[in-house]
Structure formats: structure tokens, C-alpha cells
Amino acid sequence: GAPLEVGQALFEIASLDKVSLEIEIPESEISLVEEDSAVQLRVDSAHAYSVDSCLTRIYPSAQLRDEANVFVAPIELDNQDGLYRPGMKGKATVYGPTRPWVWCYLREAFERITWLLGL
Fold first, then answer.
1. What is the C-alpha separation between 41 and 94, in angstroms, rounded?
2. Which residue of 13, 23, 45, 73 is 20 to 30 Å from 91, comparing CA positions?
3. Averaged over 18-35, what is the pLDDT?
4. DSSP 8-state code for residue 81
5. pLDDT tens for residues 31-64?
6. 89 pLDDT above the threshold of 80
7. Residues 27/70, Cβ–Cβ less than 8 Å
8. What is the pTM of this model?
9. How far apart are CA 32 and CA 87, in angstroms?
């Protein structure tokens, strides 16, 4: 609704040859994730196509997104085939340290008990 002056840019078009993706890591999982962790990305619009990459950076403070505290890790990807577009959503799997299979089932209960006991 604001008037433009002569020579002022109305909009800019960015190149899609390289895109930046943001991975949202839940607050409860941040202790299991480190920089240089392996990541597998899958965009909802291309179910059969996945990309392997690694985390190069994790922002040090949490952000509130979709009513949840998350830590954001940006990833730069080449987009020569134009598969990725701004605003797309997908899923990412970040691989942390290897744990015994029992830990996957008992971790949440263990963390709740230690929290209640103040340990």
C-alpha cells in the first residue's frame, strides 16, 4: 500500500541454483545432535528422492515455531535440477551417536524420572 519512488525496486528475484534449508531440531533432542552429524533430507513433494548431507552449524538459541521450542540448523544444498523451491516442507533425519535398541524405548521414562528426582 505504500507508494514507490522512481528507481526503487519493486521486488527481487533470487537464483535457485543454491538453496538454504532449515532443519528444526526439537529441544528434547538437541543433546543428541552435534555439528557434523549426518542428515538425510526428504522433501514432501519428492517422496522417492532423498539427499544426504551433514550439519555444519546449529544456532545456539532456541526459537518458538509451531508452538514448540526448536533449534535451527541451516544447510546449503545445490539445486541445479530445480527440485527445491522456497516454502517447501519435508522431513529430516539427523543421525546422532549409536545407542542400544533398549535405549530408544526407555530414554523418555529415564529422563522423566531423573527430572522428577532432580538429578
1. 9
2. 13
3. 87
4. T
5. 888 888 899 988 888 767 788 888 889 999 999 9
6. yes
7. yes
8. 0.69
9. 27
**With contact defined as beta carbons under 8 Å apart, do 68 and 78 qualify?**
no
Rounded Cα distance between 78 and 89, Å, is 17
63/29 Cα distance (integer angstroms): 14
**C-beta separation of 57 from 73 below 8 A:** yes
Strands of 68-78's sheet, edge to edge? 18-26, 68-78, 63-65
Three-class SS of residue 26?
strand
Task: Say how far apart CA 49 and CA 35 lie, in whole Å.
Answer: 24
CA distance 78 to 100: 35
Q: Are strands 18-26 and 63-65 parallel, antiparallel or unpaired?
A: unpaired
Sign of CA dihedral 93, 95, 100, 105: negative
